[in-house]
Amino acid sequence: MLRYMLKRLLIMVITLWIIVTLTFVLMVSIPGSPFNSDQTSNEIVQANLERHYNLDKPYHIQYLLYLKSIATLEFGPSIKQPNQTVNDLLGRGFPISFELGIVTIIVAVVSGIILGILAALRHNGIIDYMAMGIAVLGISIPNFILATLLIQQLAVNLEWFPVATWSSPKHMVLPVLALATGPMAIIARLTRSTMLEVLTQDYIKMARAKGLTPWKVIMKHALRNALMPVVTIMGTLLAGILTGTFVIEQIFAIPGMGKYFVESINHRDYPVIMGTTVFYSAFLIIMLFLVDIAYGILDPRIKVNNKEGE
Amino acid sequence: MKQKHNPRHIKLQSQVPDEWFRWKERDQNQAEVVSRPSLSYWQDAWKRLVKNKLAMSGLFFLIVLVIMAIIGPIVSPYEVNKTDLPNQYQAPSAEHWFGTDSHGRDVFTRTWYGARISLFVGFMAALIDVTIGIIYGGISGYKGGRTDNIMMRIIEILYGLPYLLVVILLLVVLGPSLTTIIIALTVTGWVGMARIVRGQVLQIKNYEFVLASKSFGTRSSRIIRKNLLPNAMGPIIVQMTLTVPSAIFAEAFLSFIGLGIQAPYASWGVMANDSLGAILSGNWWTLFFPAFFISFTMFAFNVLGDGLQDALDPKLRK
Fold first, then answer.
1. How do residues A79-115 score in pLDDT, each as one tens digit?
2. Where is the ABC transmembrane type-1 domain (chain A) (predicted)?
3. pTM of the model
4. What CATH number does domain B43-316 carry, 1.10.3720.10, 3.30.300.90, 3.90.550.10, 3.40.50.300?
5. I need a surface site. Which of A103, A161, A216, A218 has the fewest CB within 10 A?
6. Collapsing DSSP states into helix, strand and coil, what is residue B112?
């Protein structure tokens, strides 16, 4: 287990290093200096600015300084918004995005699993077809389309929920719904197929034969094993939800990190784009690592396979 | 009636009169006849796919979509980017079948033009992914050993990179255009395909017919081309049908956050983004048509991919 963890840790560090280096190379290869816009047309001012941000130094020194700043979690200043650093934006936006993300994950996982179990228990019944119909629709409709449709129907036409912003639980309903439907659909399909497989296993027959109630058989014996694949795709789902927050926060005018990120893309605010990308990537890569470790702990077969594989 | 020593048979026979039995002559011509028509793998898969109504309706929708993407902008009397401000926000009518948008542009024409871009991005991304994936995965799986080990470590590292973030990063630097979008989507997109090809090759290369081929002295490149790839084709095709919708989604997503095809050119994502303001004022059609076609295209590819997965799986053969 320790060896497996170390191997994953090494891969994680290399992946992090690649994304940081890639960001640096791309940042340097953008033509022109970041201060070429009209308000800093004065050459002396520009030279001062470049010195202040170490842009006058050779690339390898810049790279080392960049690595150092990343390692100390200093993601640099914003060009377009004066006196703002990426850290300021992160500090303001991330808690809101995090809240949105956490609620979305909980909603997606809980409803996805319930839908999957119901579908598996009523295999080829009406509930199964309905659940899988919802799931296919959920996978097919992009979250930003769903968000706009929800606003149009539930907020503008029926006026059940507020159109935008982020202040009360009622404001959370539409963004969370728009963001959670896709992952929920994937989880539901996965839970259903593994559940169907698990239910044919002998140990389920055994549990039934012992006289356990159907509820106990499902909760204690079947579900535990059916959930393993759900754990494996959590990393991918997290990445999807995270990128989903970019558009959802923009559509619902939620002052989270994703909104700042998309704004910085539209304004070509390069340091913010790069800093946020590194932050997001690091967050995701670490999450993937944790998911992998969790999977290794939960599934005893991993250890066996690993020994044989090495 | 060889088993006359079996008492149960004797008992049974005693109840049935002898004249009910008749000797059937062995027909030499019939002995070699196969009871069902011999089908190749692909014929068999096709037969099973045809039976899957959902997958077939997906296929049908996609064929119609491709035809409309080709002829739609040609048959329409309106130009894709021709603005006509006096006629902005016209509801769908006989003149403008899908209505007009905020600039008076014909939504019908723009929808099919958007279909061209979405389908082009989707198919190109899938094609490039397959090409790189087959070469990389094929070499990795066939060579095995140390080569495989190193190549798989590289894949493992690339797999950890957040896909859309890398794409966003590349597009910010390269500048958004059709070519750069396809490049950005395939830079890390081929990794999934390479893994699948490798897994297939690893499995198939141990089969006896490959050994037989080797013992005849066939060159490695020929074995990969003639023995391994045709047999790995099923999962590759399924993965391809699932790559196309994810590329279409990525393009729409990028257009939506302002990194896709640039205005005035129409892609479904651009159209959806343009109509965000319009839905609040009740001009639903500007959003509805691009939204419907993005969702339905993804739906069609998903059900077709699911259907192909079942159809191409020889284990499910009845």
1. 777 777 778 888 888 888 888 888 999 999 999 988 8
2. 94-291
3. 0.78
4. 1.10.3720.10
5. A216
6. helix
